[in-house]
Amino acid sequence: MATRFVSERNIQFLLYEVFDVESLTGYDYYSQHNRKMFDMVLKEAVKLGKDLLFPLFEEMDRKQPELVGGEVKVHPSMKKIIKEFAEGGWLTSTVPFDQDGEQLPNMVADICEFIFAAANYSANAYAGLTKGSSHLIECFGSKDLYETYVPNMRAGKWQGTMALTEPEAGSSLSDVATTAEPTDQGYYAIRGQKIFISAGDHDAAENVVHLMLVKIAGAPAGVKGISLFVVPKYRPGADGTLVSNDVATSGIYHKLGYRGCPIAQLSMGDKNDCRGWLVGEPHQGLKYMFQMMNEARIGVGMGATAMASAAYYAALEYSRSRQQGRKPGQKDPNSPPVAIIEHADVKRMLLLQKAVVEGSLSLLTQCSKYVDYQKVLDGENRQKYNLLLEILTPVAKSYPSEMGNLAISQGLQCLGGSGYCDDYPLEQYYRDCRIHPIHEGTTGVQGMDLLGRKVMMQQGQAFAHYVNELQETIAAAKQDSELAGFAGRLEQALDRLQEVTRHQVAVAEKQGAEVFLADAVLYLEYFGIITIAWQWLLQGIAARKALESGPKKKDRDFYAGKMYALRYFYGYELPKTEGLAARLTDDDKLTAEMGAEAFND
Amino acid sequence: MATRFVSERNIQFLLYEVFDVESLTGYDYYSQHNRKMFDMVLKEAVKLGKDLLFPLFEEMDRKQPELVGGEVKVHPSMKKIIKEFAEGGWLTSTVPFDQDGEQLPNMVADICEFIFAAANYSANAYAGLTKGSSHLIECFGSKDLYETYVPNMRAGKWQGTMALTEPEAGSSLSDVATTAEPTDQGYYAIRGQKIFISAGDHDAAENVVHLMLVKIAGAPAGVKGISLFVVPKYRPGADGTLVSNDVATSGIYHKLGYRGCPIAQLSMGDKNDCRGWLVGEPHQGLKYMFQMMNEARIGVGMGATAMASAAYYAALEYSRSRQQGRKPGQKDPNSPPVAIIEHADVKRMLLLQKAVVEGSLSLLTQCSKYVDYQKVLDGENRQKYNLLLEILTPVAKSYPSEMGNLAISQGLQCLGGSGYCDDYPLEQYYRDCRIHPIHEGTTGVQGMDLLGRKVMMQQGQAFAHYVNELQETIAAAKQDSELAGFAGRLEQALDRLQEVTRHQVAVAEKQGAEVFLADAVLYLEYFGIITIAWQWLLQGIAARKALESGPKKKDRDFYAGKMYALRYFYGYELPKTEGLAARLTDDDKLTAEMGAEAFND
Fold it and tell me: Which of A24, B19, B43, B509 is the most buried (most CB within 10 A)?
């Protein structure tokens, strides 16, 4: 029914008008690229999404992966999809030229990910995992590991995974219990269980390469004893043949959504023949894994934004074509009904979706730009963008995940009863998106990361850089009389954020970690709204600039839409910070104080 | 996995300690009842829920209704369930003694509905529809119609429905196009289509009796031309045999949830042989239907509360048993993990659920009490409680529907990845509950009903009564030093609500209906939060009274839990009204002003 999943016009706006991706080509590392090439890449991504991924979106949900005789069977099209990803260079888009990659700016490559995820999130997840895990081997593995695994992964032949979670180690990774016994053969004997492993086993790849958190026998307790291993499903023999590596798939999950991608339970070493190879140094595993984890968190934010994007366009299409009711004040029952997009409340629901989708995509592109800057700058500048990325990662993961679910719910609501039925895709987006506040660190984990770690890190330097970035945007927006009011409101909100943050830091000092972190999720929500308000002001600056240049009717509508979404965000979303700030400065720390027995009845 | 779906202790608290249902037995109409009987009824309801309904909750989702050769097959247990409902007197619990009913107070009967819906919403929906539609015939139908249909419906043999929606008449009922041509045989010839008809056809009943909105040929356009008809699937012949009445089931929907109950598309008169019988006067159909609709709206709020209740107890059970992580500040990785209910953020998520479930159930019981008062009082008092019920109906429908979805989402979140999988019931509650903001009038429709009709009705009398009710509770709470602070905050919020309402009324006068109603959904949300804050203060008064009487440890925990939930609501939910009030007094009426072309890109 739906025919669109992204706005190419909006992608152009963000890349060229808001974030000026072309400016990157002024740096050596990206000097071989130009706008024409970026546009070609983007066009190819949209084509792949439209021709191959999007048509399979529904079918991959209806025909779920199955575990048959210990083998996971996925949709038969997955082989072709992975092949096209590999052949199109999509698995190596940010890999340097000297490793046969395309060395594209992250800003462009990440937007391509967004396009794929909007077309078919499950299908893209396989590729994302292979990219992240091969990058991990590239960064921290030996030459030997690199040569054995990475080319096959980048060729799309071998699937990569991140294997962290265990039955007794979910949010608490320090309790990882999978063990590695050293041998004198250069490998370790692995034994244990992993659960919730995305793309953890399937028949569309010849092999599966797990990047696995494991404790070496005798390692210190807690996170300091975790090491990173490569544990393949089949280990390559000396002659290149693949030998079973005693990694059994003991189950797959039946999930609410995200059904195109299998999530597996793995059992290693049941036959005492599971081998793993250490990546980097012993006991540094969590640090290494956090490279992939941070990429994956941004990827989750992107995935949530992508689903909310596709859902938005489906709701928009329906709202334009569905005729129902009349405007308030139209009393004549014989007058023709209007398209529901004419109703103020439907416009409000669509604006919420637009504001969340385009605001989140703006933030994610901002993050991609910081990644790019780290590749082309050094010294203090590099450090600054690294800190900005650090502090924004929990926000870029959680805001789209939480608000993406609400946005999709509003999209479903635009369709009324039809939104609840599977003749339309909204119910699937609603199911699919619910994974995002959970995987790669729940919203609770992100809240503690932001408030307990990132805000405080390096004597608050990351936070100070963040405040500076917003202040720069505020100062620029104040130059334009149409934006000055919004800039003033963001300035006030930012001042209040700093007050609230100081209050929280004082709580940490006086009342300890538990009280301090009790409302970390609310702090994250609060911080997120202000961050997206910043992104909307940035977009407002670009839109106003374009409007002043006297654009054509079609562009005028587009920029006017940006200004409406900005007004929506400042009118409907930013005021939510008032209640959150009130709560975050309230002294009633009931959740820290309350005993579990008060839930008895 | 989960073993509970309601708290019997909380039901006792609401019925006896907060709302004093026993006081009703002082009125003639309820004088035959006493507490012992109420307790027996409640115990029977819980037993039926536990023994029959709850064990089928998951299975009825997995084995969905099917349309086979024009016949809808539902879960084979539905026959038994309907039989037990009928034999247990559950279809006639509020029917007067002189019609062989139990004449129970609505407060008790509605709590029984809550129990059934919490055990298995889909199964209870069949019964709810039969009760509502037979009541409609009882109130407005002829003696003949009553005798032909009502006894069979109340015996559970015939299913009742409400048949309103059509392909081109969803939220806009004025566009109903199903027609009735009068004949000289006492019936009308019906022709048309109805869609989204819950329990609209199935093989667990011998017949289906549709209470249908239809336009008599030549009727005025719009809602003034709508009449109410009884249109059975099989019409009873003179000898009592059933003859097919040309009502064809043209399809059933595949839905996100609520799968135990079939939702049908019906086609009437394809063979020119569909007969309908007028209920009451011509062109009064919508007025009559609103009796059932208002009951159904309260029923939806109850259903949403019930699902959120069952989800809450499932999440609570998991949070008590699942061990994961350590308290902040506990640095020793060798220390044992704690149950996740010990984590402040999990307590916050559980408190949100508790506050929504118990706050909503309190409001719904308040509404039931108003229904009871209308049965036992007359004159001005009766009118007062009627107005209170009118103004609270959109709130009692929407607050639980909207917040129930968020509460269940938080319940799912408590389980992390397990919440996303169908080994646990949370994902089903999440799917099931999403229907509630849609059916029986969307949240958008409820917003317009509250702000556009109820707040203004009879020169604002309903609103004035509402303010009085809250003020009485505030005054009572101020007598207790432990509650005075909360009472003061509700008083402030109520003052602000009155200001905001005056502002809205001024907008209606100066800027017209479209601008006035543009943010009606936000007004509904705002009004809802304040209403539930009132209900929590009422519960606080009862809890404090009990705590002062020196209760036993078990009761002390229960009442302490009430006080924590009250603190949660005033600390975390009530502050949300600040942002909403800011928005509702903001002059930027962008959604009324914006043209649809600004969504172009």
Answer: A24
Within 8 A by CB and 6+ apart from A3, the residues are A317
298-337 in chain B: CB under 8 A from chain A: 316, 320, 323-329, 333-334, 337
- Residue A238 pLDDT level (bands cut at 50, 70, 90): confident
Say yes or no to pLDDT of B336 above 80: yes
Q: Average pLDDT, whole number, for chain B?
A: 97
Q: Are B577 and B491 in contact (CB under 8 A)?
A: no
Structure tokens at A535: 């992104």
CA distance A115 to A124: 10
DSSP H stretches of helix in B322-441: 344-376, 379-414, 426-433
Go through B155-182 and write b for each residue having 16 or more CB atoms within 10 A of its CB, e for each that does not.
bbebbbbbbbbbeebbbbbbbbebbbee
Sign of CA dihedral B115, B116, B121, B127: negative
- Tell me: pLDDT of A1 over 70: no
The percentage of residues in chain A with a pLDDT greater than 90, rounded to a whole number, is 98
Token pair 């036959």 is found at A271
Q: How far is A143 from chain B (nearest CA, A)?
A: 34
Residues of A in contact with B529 (CB under 8 A): none
* Residue A210 three-state SS: strand
Residue B600 at interface with chain A, using a CB cutoff of 8 Å:
yes
Asked if A438's CB is within 8 angstroms of B594's CB, the reply is: no
> Could you report the per-residue pLDDT of B170-201, keeping only the tens digit for each?
999 999 999 999 999 999 999 999 999 999 99
Taking the C-alpha atoms of residue B64 and residue B73, their distance in angstroms, rounded to an integer, is 9
Q: Hey, what amino acid is at A83?
A: K
With beta carbons less than 8 A apart as the criterion, state whether B283 and B224 touch.
yes
On whether any CB of chain B is under 8 Å from the CB of A127, the answer is: no
A435 lies within 8 A of chain B by CB: yes
Distance between CA atoms of A228 and A287, rounded to whole angstroms? 9
Options A166, A402, A440, A469, the catalytic residue: A440
pLDDT band at A3 (very low <50, low <70, confident <90, very high): confident
Please answer whether residues B353 and B313 qualify as being in contact, where contact means their C-beta atoms are separated by less than 8 angstroms: no
| Cα dihedral: A39, A45, A47, A49 (round 10) | -150
- pTM, two decimals, is 0.98
pLDDT given at position B237:
87
Beta-carbon contacts of A494 under 8 Å, excluding residues fewer than 6 positions away, are: A467, A470, A471, A474, A530
CB contact A394 to B (< 8 Å): no
Half-sphere exposure of residue B210, counting CA atoms within 13 Å on the CB side?
36
Residue B242 phi, psi dihedral angles, 5° rounding: -100, 130
The model's pLDDT over B378-433, given as tens digits with 9 standing for 90+, comes to: 999 999 999 999 999 999 999 999 999 999 999 999 999 999 999 999 999 999 99
pLDDT band at B26 (very low <50, low <70, confident <90, very high): very high
- What the block records as the tokens of A420 is 């609840």
Q: Which residue of A has its CA nearest to B196?
A: A417
The residues, any chain, with a CB within 8 Å of residue B140's CB and separated by 6 or more, are B228, B279, B280, B288, B291
Q: Are A107 and A42 in contact (CB under 8 A)?
A: no
How far apart (Å, rounded) are the C-alpha atoms in residues A599 and B320?
A: 10
Select the residue from A256, A350, A449, A489 to test the B interface by mutation, using most B Cβ atoms within 10 A: A256
What are the tens digits of pLDDT across the range A23-67?
999 999 999 999 999 999 999 999 999 999 999 999 999 999 999
Helix (H, G, I), strand (E, B) or coil at B242: strand
State how far the Cα of B199 lies from the Cα of B203, in Å rounded to an integer: 10
When pLDDT is averaged across residues B251-267 and rounded to a whole number, the result is 98
